[in-house]
Amino acid sequence: MKWEEMAIETQSNSMTGRWSEWFIEKIGGLLSRQAPPQRAYLCDFNKLCDKIRPVDVLLVEGRSRISRMIRHVTQSPWSHAALYIGRLQDIQEHSLQKLIKTHYDGPPDKQLLVESELGLGTIISPLDKYKDDHLRIVRPEWLAQEDVSRVVIYALNRLGKNYDVRHVFDLARFLFPWGIFPRKWRSTLFQHNAMQPTEDICSSMIADAFQSVHYPILPFIHEGNKHHIELVRRNPRLFTPSDFDYSPFFSVIKYPIFPPNIIKGYAHLPWNKEQISDL
């Protein structure tokens, strides 16, 4: 191939790459736009703040277009997952405090999450960011205390990574025929480096953190060569937020709006016996 032809091809590829990046960025902005809350849930956010513990996974029923897409694809109410890491003032390791401060400049008593978000990458966010959303806490009940710290450290070391915007198109492959997408945009879920991603999505970042200490989420279980049971790690890019809800190794933590003493007297709750709600 002549040098002129190579230069033209390189320039063409560069222009195509810039155009696709621009297109993905615009689509990402459109998909991540939030709608206002539409209903109240019978949960107490203040109780959630009291009950949540470090490395609990916070599941969110998001209000954006991409959230609706994820819920449709996964057939689950949960479209986003974040990892709770506690308060800055409660983290003992000086190096971790320093790392957090490079990504967070709020008060030290604020409850914090590590999450991967479209358009922002892997960031630290305050827990009260989601006070108006439908939430669920799921807890790795059998995680050893020393591994709690390791999971937090792993997640913090992912801070600053870009969000894998191509994942939007990986989701879209379930909804649209592949012919409408250029070959370069096709799914990267099954590439050989799937276990060492350079970009994050919310659930894969958290799955990576737990799998780094060999804590099971939804492993593939089969009989090995010596007729022993073997667990095989799942590709972290295949995880969705609902997998933490479905996992038998994570417990659901409830935080109802009514205190337990009132719920125990459920027969005497102020029921309106003449009306039925359609909401």
From TrEMBL:
InterPro entries: Papain-like_cys_pep_sf (IPR038765), Peptidase_C92 (IPR024453). SUPFAM superfamilies: Cysteine proteinases. This is Orthopoxvirus protein of uncharacterized function (DUF830). It comes from Fluoribacter dumoffii.
